From TrEMBL, chain A:
Subcellular location: Membrane
GO terms under cellular component: membrane
Cofactor section: [2Fe-2S] cluster; [4Fe-4S] cluster
PANTHER family membership: HYDROGENASE SUBUNIT (PTHR24960:SF84), PHOTOSYSTEM I IRON-SULFUR CENTER-RELATED (PTHR24960)
Ranges for domain 2Fe-2S ferredoxin-type: 5-81
Protein name: NAD-reducing hydrogenase, gamma subunit
Keywords: 2Fe-2S, 4Fe-4S, Iron, Iron-sulfur, Membrane, Metal-binding, NAD, Translocase
CDD domains: fer2 (cd00207)
Taxonomic superkingdom: Bacteria
Source species taxonomy: Bacteria, Pseudomonadati, Pseudomonadota, Candidatius Mariprofundia, Mariprofundales
Length: 248, 179
C-alpha cells in the first residue's frame, strides 16, 4: 500500500479523497457513497461484469469497480439517466433467470432484489426467458440452484482467491453461459467445498444457499426488509448468515 | 349516472391472495366506496367487465380462459394494473415452465403420490392449458405494476389514491417488496 495522499476525485459534486491504487468504487465505499453494484465485493479482485456501477467519468461511461481513481476525475453517479440504465440492466438480469422472489429462501437477503428496490423497479419489462437450468442438491450442506445465478463470479473469485480451492467456474457464452463445478461428476458433493468457505456464503442471490437455515430469520425481518442496500457499512451484514445487525 | 370511478378486479392464474390483501384495507373500504364502484370482481360477482376506469388483475396466464378474460379487461378498462408477483412475472405458477405440460399433467393426475383413479381431465368445459405460464405484459399493454406477494394493503391504497387524485401512481420504498 502506498502512503495516503491528498489526491481527490469528485462524485456528484462531492470531493472525496483517494489513495493511489484505489478504484473509483473503493474511494466511494470509503467515503460512504453508494454506487449500485452486484459483482463487486471489497477484498476480491474486481470483475466489472454486471455493469451496474457504470458511472460517467469526465463525460464518458466507465465501470467504477475497475477504473482506477485519478486526480481531478469529475464523476456522475446518482443521476436519473444512469439509474434508468441500471434499472434496465437489473430488469434484464431478472427476466433471463428464474427469479421468483416469493418462493426463494434468499428473499429479503438478496442483493439483486435490494438493488431492484433501490432503483424502483416494478416489473421485468422484457419477455421472460424461463430458462431451464440444473439444480445441484448433492452436497449435504450447500445447495446450488442455477435458476437464480446471475453469473457475477463472486463465488468463483471467493473460492479461488480466499478459500484457495477453485470450486466454481463459468462456462459457455451468451444465453449458454452457466456456473459449473470443478469435480469429475460436476457435482458439489465431489468437491472439497465446505459450509465455512467464503464461496458458500458470498452469493448475492439465492443460487448458492446453506441448507437448513433458510428460514431462521422470518421474511419481514431480513436485512433488506430493514435496511436499504445503499446504507453505509452494510457489506459485512450482508455476508453474515442467519442474523442481521439488529438481532443478537 | 354515477360519477364514481369504476374499478374491475379479477384473479387469473393467482391464488386470490392479492384480493385478500386488497380487503386488508379494512374500514378504509368504506371511504374508498365514496369514490369508487366495483364492476366485474369477485367482490360483486358481476361476471363480465363493463366499461371501467381501472382494472386490477391478479395472477398470470396459464390457460385460454385467462387470456380471454385479460383481453376483455384490456378492451374495457382505461388503466390496467398488473397486481402481484404472478401478474408481473408469472410467479409461482410459472415454476411449471421448467417442465413440459405433459410432465405436469402426468405428475398431477397419473403418477403422483396418492393419486386414485388416474386420469387426465379433458372435459370440454375445461379451458385449455397454455404450454407455458406467462405474465400479463406479454399479451396486453399494462399501464402500471403493483409488486408483492401479495402487495400490502397500504400499497393498494397508495396506488388507488394516487389515481383518484389524478396523479401518476408511485410506491414509496418502504412498501415496495417482491415477497
Amino acid at each position: 500500500m502506498s502512503e495516503p495522499t491528498n489526491k481527490t476525485i469528485t462524485i456528484d459534486g462531492r470531493e472525496i479523497p483517494f489513495e493511489e491504487g484505489q478504484t473509483i468504487m473503493d474511494a466511494a465505499l470509503a467515503a460512504d457513497i453508494y454506487i449500485p453494484h452486484l459483482c463487486h465485493r471489497p477484498g476480491l479482485s474486481p470483475h466489472g461484469s454486471c455493469k451496474l456501477c457504470t458511472v460517467e467519468v469526465n463525460g464518458r461511461s466507465a465501470s467504477a469497480c475497475t477504473l482506477p481513481a485519478s486526480s481531478g476525475q469529475e464523476i456522475s453517479n446518482n443521476t436519473d439517466a444512469l439509474n434508468e440504465v441500471r434499472k434496465t440492466i437489473t430488469q434484464m438480469l431478472f427476466v433471463e433467470g428464474n427469479h421468483f422472489c416469493p418462493s426463494c429462501e434468499k428473499t429479503g437477503n438478496c442483493t439483486l432484489q435490494a438493488v431492484a428496490y433501490h432503483l424502483d423497479m416494478l416489473d421485468g419489462h422484457f419477455p421472460q426467458f424461463y430458462p431451464r437450468r440444473e439444480v445441484d442438491a448433492s452436497h449435504p450442506g450447500i445447495m446450488l440452484d442455477r435458476d437464480r445465478c446471475i453469473l457475477c463470479e463472486l463465488c468463483v473469485r471467493a473460492s479461488r482467491e480466499v478459500d484457495g480451492k477453485d470450486v466454481f467456474a463459468i462456462t459457455g457464452r451468451g444465453t449458454d453461459a452457466r456456473l459449473i463445478v470443478n469435480s469429475e461428476s460436476g457435482k458439489l458433493v465431489d468437491t472439497n467445498i465446505t459450509t465455512d468457505d467464503l464461496a458458500a456464503h458470498i452469493c448475492p442471490v439465492g443460487a448458492i444457499l446453506i441448507k437448513e437455515e433458510g428460514y431462521e430469520v422470518p421474511i419481514g425481518r431480513r436485512t433488506f426488509d430493514l435496511h436499504m442496500v445503499g446504507e453505509p457499512g452494510l457489506e459485512p451484514v450482508i455476508l453474515r448468515k442467519g442474523q442481521h445487525s439488529d438481532e443478537h | 349516472m354515477s360519477t364514481k370511478i369504476r374499478v374491475a378486479t379479477t384473479s387469473l392464474a393467482g391464488c386470490f391472495g392479492c384480493h385478500m390483501s386488497l380487503l386488508d384495507i379494512d374500514e378504509r373500504i368504506v371511504e374508498l366506496l365514496d369514490h369508487v364502484e366495483f364492476n366485474r370482481s369477485p367482490i360483486t360477482d358481476i361476471k363480465h367487465c363493463g366499461p371501467c376506469d381501472i382494472g386490477l388483475i391478479e395472477g398470470g396466464l396459464c390457460n385460454a380462459d385467462n387470456v380471454h378474460v385479460l383481453k376483455e379487461f384490456r378492451e374495457n378498462c382505461k388503466i390496467i394494473i398488473a397486481v402481484g408477483a404472478c401478474a408481473i412475472n408469472g410467479g409461482v405458477p410459472a415454476m411449471r415452465n421448467h417442465f413440459t405440460l405433459k410432465e405436469c399433467l402426468e405428475e398431477a393426475y397419473l403418477d403422483g403420490i396418492g393419486v386414485e383413479n388416474p386420469m387426465i381431465p379433458n372435459d370440454v368445459e375445461l379451458p385449455l392449458l397454455l404450454s407455458k405460464v406467462h405474465p400479463l405484459h406479454e399479451v396486453v399493454h399494462v399501464d402500471y405494476y403493483l409488486p408483492g406477494c401479495p402487495p400490502p394493503a397500504d400499497a393498494f391504497m397508495k396506488v388507488l389514491t394516487d389515481l383518484l387524485e389524478g396523479k401518476e401512481p408511485s410506491l414509496p420504498k418502504e412498501i415496495l417488496h417482491y415477497d
